[in-house]
Amino acid sequence: MEKCATSIENLKEYSVTDCNVFIGEWPFRKLSCFSKQKLINSPEETGIAKMWVSSFEGVFFNNTFQANRLLYEMTKDIPAFVTFASMNPTLPGWEEHMEKCKFEYNMKGIRIYPNYHNYTLTSASFYSLIQKAASLSFPICIYCRLADERVHPHFSKVPPVDLTPLQQVLANISSFPPIVICNCGMGDIIKIGALLKENSNTYIEISHLESIGIVKKLAGEIGVEKILFGTYTPYFYRESSYLKIQEADLNKTEMHMIFFTNAEKILPGI
Amino acid sequence: MIIDIHTHLISIPGIGNSDKNITELTVKARTETLIFHADRLGINKLCLSLGGGSLLAYPTPEELANENNAIIEAMELFPERIYGFCYVSPAEIGASLREMERCIEKKGMKGIKLWIAKRCNHRNVDPIVKKAIELDIPILQHTWLKATGNLPDESTPDDLAELAERFPEANFIMAHAGGKWEYGILKVKNLPNVLIDLAGGDPEAGITEMAVDILGANRVVYGSDARGRSFASQLAKVYGAEITNEQKELILWKNAQRLLKI
Prior knowledge:
The structure holds two protein chains of two kinds.
Chain A: E1 16-23, H1 36-40, H2 42-46, E2 48-55, H3 57-60, H4 64-75, E3 81-86, H5 94-103, E4 109-112, H6 124-135, E5 140-143, H7 166-171, E6 179-182, H8 186-189, H9 193-198, E7 202-205, H10 214-222, E8 227-228, H11 239-247, H12 252-266
Parallel strand pairs in A: 1-2, 2-3, 3-4, 4-5, 5-6, 6-7, 7-8
Chain B: E1 3-8, H1 27-40, E2 45-49, H2 61-77, E3 82-88, H3 93-106, E4 111-114, H4 125-135, E5 139-142, H5 157-166, E6 172-175, H6 181-187, E7 194-197, H7 207-215, E8 220-221, H8 231-239, H9 245-260
Helix pairs in contact in B: 2-3, 3-4, 6-7
């Protein structure tokens, strides 16, 4: 049985973009590879040329603006980092702040965590956020969860985002930016299967996909062009996503699309 | 060498349920799919249980036999790749003991699998454990401690610790490291007859490092909970861990080899 050549050592030929990386402190555990320095060293070790990165502080701080400022300060001299602002559309002044993230902090997209910020995909604030992001050409990464609900601390149980309304919400918007569904499992994807299949501007990343050969299976169902490589480093072992690519029976073109081309389509030239 | 201590032949959901109902597929087809993907990651041996295709939490004696018959078939089709674990239920003690005699003594299975028919500290489990001791086989016990609430008869690390203390001569594998693994690992720290497997939870960084630090690498085994989980995300818990290569070897195969006497 010929093994796929995508062991970690061979990844450098693909110029990988990792669409799901965080820096900063996870509040409930010291993450062993959280340090910025380890992430910076990544390209030499892992073949990852670019990382879409936000901070955990952008989830948990009451003042998301402060978290994005910190993210900017931590990352501004590191070309491998493509920064995504954490956006909370329930915070007064968020529209102005989104503009600041684009024009002052040179951030390239936004990440949202609706259930951590107390709104849903049917909220008016989400609708407004999509429109604002579209006006700034910001792709939107929607995070379904940040940790398996079964292991949440008893004082901080946050349910996953219900993606069911997303198709209807987007149907009422004439033009929206690329939407990336992050930290989603098959149970989440099933709710938006039609959206993913029919809409060319929606994507998913693979960090939380499970069952054997799932990447290949999903590529067959929604198209390999909708799939992004994401690891959820440092919360997850980065090797998980590499090995999922190795486990799947993908050809080199498909791997190149997942590792690079699809992300390049969302953020060309970045 | 890699030995996966924890795999199943259950179904996998698709977006449009475009797959055939998994139970319509033959044991051969399902096992071949498992082995195909295992091969892509260099996994040599699979310890397989629950072969019927569906998740039967409270199997009848006939259903228990059917589950195990599927595993026996897989073992016979792929003798170099598959070890069987006999599925038993503390709600069906007589049938379970008969299955253990059949599957282990006669058919060469290497261990037993307990799931959620009863909490594992229930006294119904005792005759099964005694039989396991007699047969000198390990007991793979499902455990989770869920923030979302456990199923009615779902065992926690506390339940397993109580059982392990009651039977210090038995060998237990705490499946899923107890789910809430920081708690589970600490709970079994002083129980040398309990190993943990890494199967089934998300590949959360730090689980393996903590297990090695607290329990020692010789009490940690690699498992995947495939087909529901990928082999990939679970192997990552070993490959990605900041531990030595010697410790990784123990986890990937040496501990399982010792435990299963293979």
